[in-house]
Amino acid sequence: MSSGMWSEKYRPNTLDQIVNQRDIIDRLKNFVQEKNIPHLLLVGPAGVGKTTSILALARDLYGPSYKNFILELNASDERGINVIRDKVKNFARTAAIASPVSFKILIMDEADHLTSDAQHALRRTMEIYTKTARFCLIGNYSENIIDPIQSRCSIFRYSSLDEKDIKERLSYITDQEKLDIVDEGLEALYQASGGDLRKATNLLQAAAANGAVIDDVSVYSLLGSVRPDKIRDMIQLALDGKFLDSREALRELLIDQGLAPEDIIRITYREIMRHSTLTEQMKVKLSDTLGEIDYRLTQGSRPEIQLSTLLGHLSLVGEEKR
After folding, report:
1. Residue 308 lies inside a defined structural domain of this protein
2. Are 146 and 59 in a shared domain?
3. Residue 40: strand, helix, or coil
4. Residues 147, 256 within the same domain
5. What is the CA 280 to chain-centroid distance, rounded?
6. What span, in angstroms and rounded, lies between the C-alpha atoms of 196 and 209?
7. Residue 133 β-bridge partners
8. Are 286 and 192 found together in one domain?
9. Are 211 and 241 found together in one domain?
10. Within this chain, do residues 60 and 144 fall inside the same structural domain, yes or no?
11. Which residues constitute the domain of residue 203?
12. Those residues with Cβ within 8 angstroms of residue 118's Cβ, 6 or more apart along the chain or in another chain
């Protein structure tokens, strides 16, 4: 098995290699063809390709020596006004030498962590040094970026990656690394990632470290979480009218396996939404119940009592279904 961090090793090098987000990628390709880009604001969930997109754009724009013309900063580490006055200004004020275009690119990751003062200083810097630098700001939430900066940027909103794209990329990595993985392991990686390909790739690397077959058991043991089929069985017992049996399954999850009540609620919600025999009306009713129980848990109610109440509602819904 090769060394290094797989999320970096298998990062796409060009815009053509990036999966999903095709509308955004096509617009970025147009910027490369025109050899000119505006200031950019890329927002969306973690691990969906925001930083990868701008690095791939830089490689396509500048060629193999692209690192000479970009500066990467992480605003969660350097979030004050001094970083704008020092690093950003020093980089932005100098012209690009021997570059195919007249500007350099400054990449500010997690820009939504910048303080308000730092953002106002950055806004002024963006105005002054437009000829020599383009600014690409990356974050999870655009509402944390001040309006004067948003108005100066082209905003690209990224969505979570599709199941098909994540599984295809993970399968490509397993082929390259010659790993033994089963379908259940691939499904567990996808479910655990929540649409975050970086997280899925890092989990795959961790699961592969022991050299054994990668299945759902190895993935969920890494997470310290329970396999969804345990909760699926508990739900089915309740729907079948076996309330006491389902309650014993719940106690095993809570007490014997030490699963957090919040995790049980989260996985239960996902499994109910995916349940093939429940009608839409039943799912609406159960969603309302789940929301109420989730709220009560945050207010300090006893988890076993509240989750048992959920099983009771599942039993009543199952009775309607039968």
Report:
1. yes
2. yes
3. strand
4. no
5. 28
6. 20
7. 104
8. no
9. no
10. yes
11. 163-223
12. 75, 79, 80, 81, 83, 84
Bridge partners for 104 per DSSP: 133
DSSP SS3 for 140: coil
pLDDT, averaged across the chain: 88
| Cα-Cα-Cα-Cα dihedral sign, residues 294, 298, 299, 301 | positive
Residue range 90-108, pLDDT digits in tens: 888 888 888 889 899 999 9
> Which residues sit opposite 43 in a β-bridge?
139, 157
Total length of the chain: 322
Among 157, 180, 210, identify where a domain stops. Answer: 157
With contact defined as beta carbons under 8 Å apart, do 56 and 13 qualify? yes
Tell whether the model's pLDDT for residue 245 goes beyond 90.
yes
Say if CB 104 and CB 91 are below 8 A apart.
Answer: yes
Question: Would you give the distance in Å from CA 58 to the centre of its chain?
Answer: 23
Going by C-alpha positions, the residue among 298, 294, 272 that lies closest to residue 284 is: 272
Furthest C-alpha separation in the chain: 74
Token pair for 172: 């490509």
- Tell me the DSSP string of 93-123: TSPPSS-SSS-EEEEEETGGGS-HHHHHHHH
Q: What is the mean pLDDT of residues 56-74?
A: 92
Looking at 207, 223, 239, the residue that finishes a domain is 223
Give me the DSSP letters along 55-69.
HHHHHHHH-TTGGGG
CB neighbour list of residue 229: distance below 8 Å, 6 or more residues apart: 216
CB atoms within 10 A of CB 48: 22
